[in-house]
TrEMBL record:
Residues 1-10, 723-734, 825-837 have a biased composition (Basic and acidic residues). It catalyses: a 1,2-diacyl-sn-glycero-3-phosphocholine(in) = a 1,2-diacyl-sn-glycero-3-phosphocholine(out); a 1,2-diacyl-sn-glycero-3-phospho-L-serine(in) = a 1,2-diacyl-sn-glycero-3-phospho-L-serine(out); a 1,2-diacyl-sn-glycero-3-phosphoethanolamine(in) = a 1,2-diacyl-sn-glycero-3-phosphoethanolamine(out). It comes from Kryptolebias marmoratus. The chain crosses the membrane at residues 59-84, 122-140, 286-310, 368-390, 402-421. Keywords: Acetylation, Autophagy, Cytoplasmic vesicle, Endoplasmic reticulum, Endosome, Glycoprotein, Golgi apparatus, Lipid transport, Membrane, Mitochondrion, Phosphoprotein, Transmembrane, Transmembrane helix, Transport, Ubl conjugation. Its main location: membrane. Residues 1-21, 718-854 are annotated as: Disordered. GO terms for biological process: autophagy of mitochondrion; lipid transport; piecemeal microautophagy of the nucleus; protein localization to phagophore assembly site; reticulophagy. This is Autophagy-related protein 9. The keyword Glycoprotein applies. Belongs to the ATG9 family.
Amino acid sequence: MAHFDTEYQRLEASYSDSPPGEENLLMHVPEGSKSQWHHIENLDLFFQRVYNLHQKNGFTCMLLGEIFELVQLLFVVAFTVFLANCVDYDILFANKFVNHTDSSKVTLPDAILPMEVCSAHIRDNAFVIFVLIISGVFWLHRFVKLIYNVCCYWEIRSFYINALKMTMSELPYASWQEVQARIIEIQKEHQICIHKKELSELDIYHRILRFKNYMVAMVNKSLLPVRFSLPALGECVFYTRGLKYNFELIFFWGPGSLFENEWSLKPEYKRGGNRLELADRLASRILWIGVANLLLCPVILVWQILYAFFSYTEVIKREPGSLGARCWSLYGRCYLRHFNELDHELMSRLSKGYKAASKYMNCFLSPLLTVVAKNVAFFAGSLLAVLIALTIYDEDVLAVEHVLSSITLLGVCITVCRSFIPDKHMVFCPEQLLRVILAHIHYMPDHWQGNAHRYETRDQFSQLFQYKAVFILEELLSPVVTPIILIFCLRRKSLEIIDFFRNFTVEVVGVGDTCSFAQMDIRQHGHPAWMSAGKTEASIYQQAEDGKTELSLMHFAITNPHWQPPRETTHFISQLKERVHREAAGAPSDTHPLSLSESEPRSLVADLLTGPSTLAPVHFACDLSLTNNTAAGVNSGAAALRSLSPVSSSLNLRGSLSAAHRVGGLTGKTMTGSGTDARTVSSGSSAWEGQLTSLVLSEYASTEMSIHALYMHELHKQQARGEPSRHTWHRQESDESSDSIPDEVRSEPSARSRSFPRSHTFPAAAPSPSAIPSSASSSAAMDQEGAASQSSSGLRRHSGPVADHVGAGGKVVRTARVPMGGWAEDAKAASRHHDPLPEETSEDELPPHIHKVT
């Protein structure tokens, strides 16, 4: 196995986040003119707190929420101990009689034990004392953290009032874009960051989402062990809040983590020479954390059960069918998340797709189960009706033993049965529903389209959109399952994790070490099948899967219309828009009568979704029909996108900033920069009067991104037809990628690779029958790497996208290395790939390919 050992160092990149001439600028401000917020040392925490205070609607709401969380924790522990040790249940259940002088009725105080007896019960129970000690230590830790957070957020409150000129009463009604625009504006005055004269939207997003971008990238590259194949359940996903917490503890902020602070990876993890030692160290940390989880499992399990009981019992009693409702799973939120997408942006997008996702899952109700549910509901309803009638006739019926319990259980049974009975007016149209879902979630494997009616698609989608009951059950099982995953699954991936953080970390001036995928650089991480052909230099190992780079780029550009992207990114966006206008011009004028005169922006998506490409029948045996339908979908998407453009002849859209983008005297500027068009109209327009509110602007941004997602998926479908797909459900676990290496490589390893352990996420190479000897191939690969380093100054952290070797007849063959995780391929698809390469020499002898983004 070839070993690529590169030194992490700062090299000039192909673009700059700073204005020309201000690279590596260190601002000097006279001592007397410095403000309170000049040179904030930890900008990551600062921007995260600014964002959190905005999302929690101000200081008072945040403070009350923190206090009630402490009270809630104290209540759960105290009330549980009280119920277990201080209640005489024999009296409560009337198994023991109490003599009263004044009344024959039993009261609640009669069932409560005296304080001396209660204290004796607690002292005699060692487990209760252990739980109280652990809970007390945890509560004190939370209390100290609350005091610290109050002091920190008081400073953020002062920042909002004095620097941003926003009161706490205004904060709940201000959009994040307005807050962000004001932060960018005051950078010139207060110099929050002294390494850059101006901040960009991407700088702020990187600081807030630094670690979350890494998590999204690791899920995208199938690095985290969250997908399992179980004998009885088949393929399933297990990703809970406890498991996520442990991942972040190990990677980012826990003792001995990979980062020395919030913005910098430890120096030893930036070099590849000691990767084996670091992998052993990381494996040891994972083992000890797994053991700690195992020891704390009883306490955490009891807490999870009690918290779930107190949280959901009232909800289940009030709405028994709530457990049959669905929610987006934690894995789904991470899989569907764009790079550089804030929490409120993600939840807004997923919430818009919730109704369509629920309707889609309800399409697959079993007819047999429906028949059974109808009859069970009939019998349970009959019994319930009789009990209710008797209760109305004489309320003493409730005093009969188990009558009230029977009424409650029968009501729950009827509600559960109704959840399995479909609406008689429901029309079965899974393909159109899946297309509506795609418009909002933006990511979907290729094989789902055209197969929406199959149970395989439904089962895979249920991993993203699970039952609420399943979510609760997974959280209850998390204390038991999490230690097993850490010890037996994550630990053996330690070398791959070390390689990942070294290969996909870049240093950005004024920001620090960030995930290279979060740069959304088409040239370094684009996918040729997602409109990046000819624009990307990424190997399969470096490509983001499922079009994550391209879709994330469009989402960020649309969400932040003032962002000034790099030259290559601007070229990609402009080419996409040119293609949109070109194809829209060639589409029939009556295909989609989309217009901004609609009162609801989402009607644009509705018009597109009801187009001929959606309603046309799917002919599985006719490729020509599929091609025509796809082309119609592309033209429909282009027409819809063009209707949002200022070049539309139907409306004269003028750029004027709304309240969400107005800062000081910026009113009247044109919304430019990312290729996103203004979504406000002139005051004289018959469609709108005055400026649109920030809410309407957000709706139009969401609509534009939805249509872009549909349009890009249609183009991808055209381009990738007949090629093997590499989505998550086909990619294998990264630790199984060695199965794709030919047997001759395993049996005849090179002398250099024989003594060097293999990382499964590292680019692998295997000789083809026509390849020249290993040494010559290594030299050719080195020449190729060296040439790439001289001609490209991108933000690649790890080199090796492709390598050339000389095949039979002297023909140069370009071959991509094995990606992280690999993927399952058909027999037909296997013949489409080039033969793998022989072993290469160590990258110690190659030029370094670590770049700094300035």
